[in-house]
Write a structure and sequence with these properties.
Strand content: 25-35%
EC number: 1.1.1.3
Number of strands: 17
Number of helices: 14
Number of domains: 3
CATH topology of the largest domain: Rossmann fold
Keywords: Amino-acid biosynthesis, Metal-binding, Methionine biosynthesis, NAD, NADP, Oxidoreductase, Sodium, Threonine biosynthesis
Cofactor: a metal cation
Family: Belongs to the homoserine dehydrogenase family.
Protein name: Homoserine dehydrogenase
Length: 432
C-alpha cells in the first residue's frame, strides 16, 4: 500500500512559521502512524526569499507568489501565520473558495471577521481551525467547541496575555514599578518593541471575543469587549491588594447572564485563594464554568514559537484525519444565537479605589454619604496617613452597577476634601 501524502502550504516564516516548520519536521517519522498520512510542506509564502532560505533545508519550496499556492490543486491545507487583517483575510477567503482547508493563528482576524470566514468555510465544506489564536499552546478552542458542548457555559475568566502577566508578576514579587517591569519584559523578549496591544488589553480582548462567541453560541467581536490596560497599576496598589489578601491580574471575563453577555478585559484584584492568583510569569490560564462540568481550568504556555506551533500542527493533524475520511467541514460556526451584549454601565462589579482626602473630622462621613447616594456600599476600608494634611483611604465596595459607581466618582472628584482619586480597580468574585 502506497503512503498517503497530504500537501500543505505555509503563509509566513517568522517566529511562529519557523516553529511550525520545526514541529512538522520533528513529527515526520511518526506522522503516518499518528494520523494515517504524512503532511508535506509543498510551498512556503515569504516576502524575502533570500532571508527565508537561510531558515530551512529546502529553499526550493519558497515562493513570493500567492497564486502559485492558490492555483495548485494538490495543496489541501493552507496554514496562515502572517498576522494582520490584510492580505491574510483575502488569502484565506480565496483558499476556502478554492476548496482548501485553512489553519490560522490570527486572533486579530478571527476576533473581527471570524463569522464571515466560518460561513465561507461552511459554504465550501472546508475546515477552518484556529486553536492557536487563543492562549498559544493551551488547548481551549477545541474543548469549547467539542469536549464541553454538553454544557451550558456561564463564565470564562482567564489570564490570556503573557506579557502583562509577566509584568504584574515582577511588580508583585520584586516590588518593581510598571515602567521598570515593562523594560525588563522588553529586554527578555516577552514584550514587543511596541507593546501597546498587550499593555492596553487589546490582545487579550481579541482572545476573549473569540472564546465568548464559541462558549455562548452568539457572535461577539473585539469591538464588543470593554478593554482597560495595566499602565496605571502601581506598586502601591499591589501592596494594598496584598493587605486585602489579593493579587492584581489582567483578567478577561465573559459571562452569559439572563440579560445578555458581559465581556471585558481589565486589571482586577483576585483573591489569593483563587487558582488564577498563582498563575505567574508568562503563563496563561483559562477558567471555565459550566452547568455539568462545574469548574475546569486550562493552564500552560500562552505564546512562543513552539507552543503556538504545537496548537497549529494539532489543527493540521485534525484536518488530515477529516480529509482521509471525507468529512471536512463537519464542525462549523457554533453561533446559532443572537444574544445582546450588555452595556458596561449596566454590569455589576466590586471596586477597589484609593483616595487622597483631607485628614479632618467628617471627611469619611462625607465620602460615605456620596457613595450611599449612588447606592455604592462600602465593604472594606483602610486608612493610612501619608502627609500631615492628606490621608490615604482605600475603599472596597460591594457589587454595584458600574454606571452608579462612575456617577459617584464624578461627584467625589469635585469635593474640596478630596485631593485626588489615585486608583480605581475592579475586584473579581463575590465578597467572602
Amino acid at each position: 500500500m502506497s503512503k498517503k501524502v497530504i500537501n500543505a502550504a505555509l503563509l509566513g516564516l517568522g517566529t511562529v512559521g519557523t516553529g511550525v516548520y520545526k514541529v512538522l519536521k520533528n513529527q515526520e517519522a511518526e506522522m503516518e502512524k499518528k494520523i494515517g498520512a504524512t503532511v508535506k510542506l509543498k510551498k512556503i509564502l515569504v516576502r524575502n526569499l533570500k532571508k527565508a532560505a537561510a531558515k530551512i533545508a529546502e529553499p526550493e519550496i519558497l515562493t513570493n507568489n500567492w497564486k502559485e499556492i492558490l492555483e495548485d490543486e494538490s495543496i489541501d491545507i493552507v496554514i496562515e501565520v502572517m498576522g494582520g487583517i490584510e492580505p491574510a483575510k483575502t488569502y484565506i477567503m480565496e483558499a476556502l473558495k478554492a476548496g482548501k482547508n485553512v489553519v490560522t493563528a490570527n486572533k486579530d482576524l478571527v476576533a473581527s471577521h471570524g463569522g464571515e470566514l466560518l460561513d465561507c468555510a461552511a459554504a465550501n465544506q472546508c475546515d477552518f481551525l484556529f486553536e492557536a489564536a487563543v492562549a498559544g499552546g493551551i488547548p481551549i478552542i477545541r474543548p469549547l467547541k467539542q469536549c464541553l458542548t454538553g454544557n451550558h457555559l456561564s463564565e470564562i475568566v482567564g489570564i490570556v496575555n503573557g506579557t502583562t502577566n509577566f509584568i504584574l508578576t515582577k511588580m508583585t514579587q520584586e516590588n518593581m514599578e510598571f515602567a521598570d517591569a515593562l523594560a525588563l519584559a522588553t529586554k527578555l523578549g516577552y514584550a514587543e518593541a511596541d507593546p501597546t496591544a498587550d499593555i492596553q488589553g487589546y490582545d487579550a480582548g481579541r482572545k476573549m471575543a473569540i472564546m465568548a462567541s464559541i462558549a455562548f453560541n452568539s457572535r461577539v467581536t473585539f469591538e464588543n469587549v470593554a478593554t482597560e490596560g495595566i499602565t496605571r497599576i502601581s506598586s502601591k496598589d499591589i501592596r494594598y491588594a496584598r493587605d486585602l489578601g489579593c493579587v492584581i491580574k489582567l483578567l478577561g471575563v465573559a459571562r452569559n447572564t439572563d440579560t445578555g453577555i458581559e465581556v471585558s478585559v481589565q486589571p482586577m484584584l483576585v483573591s489569593e485563594k483563587h487558582p488564577l492568583a498563582s498563575v505567574n510569569d508568562s503563563f496563561n490560564a483559562v477558567f471555565v464554568h459550566g452547568d455539568a462540568v462545574d469548574d475546569a481550568m486550562f493552564y500552560g504556555r500562552g505564546a512562543g514559537e513552539l507552543p503556538t506551533a504545537s496548537a497549529i500542527v494539532g489543527d493540521v493533524f485534525d484536518i488530515v484525519r477529516d480529509i482521509l475520511f471525507s468529512c471536512t467541514g463537519r464542525i462549523r460556526c457554533t453561533c446559532y444565537k443572537t444574544l445582546p451584549i450588555k452595556n458596561q454601565e449596566d454590569i455589576e462589579s466590586r471596586f477597589f479605589m484609593r483616595i487622597h482626602a483631607s485628614d479632618t473630622p467628617g471627611v469619611l462621613a462625607a465620602i460615605a454619604s456620596v457613595l450611599g447616594k449612588y447606592e455604592v456600599s462600602i465593604a472594606q476600608m483602610i486608612q493610612k496617613h501619608k502627609h500631615e494634611e492628606w490621608a490615604e483611604l482605600v475603599i472596597v465596595t460591594s457589587r454595584v452597577k458600574e454606571g452608579n459607581f462612575h456617577d459617584a466618582l464624578l461627584v467625589l472628584e469635585k469635593m474640596e476634601v478630596v485631593q485626588k482619586i489615585s486608583s480605581v480597580i475592579r475586584v473579581y468574585g463575590e465578597e467572602e
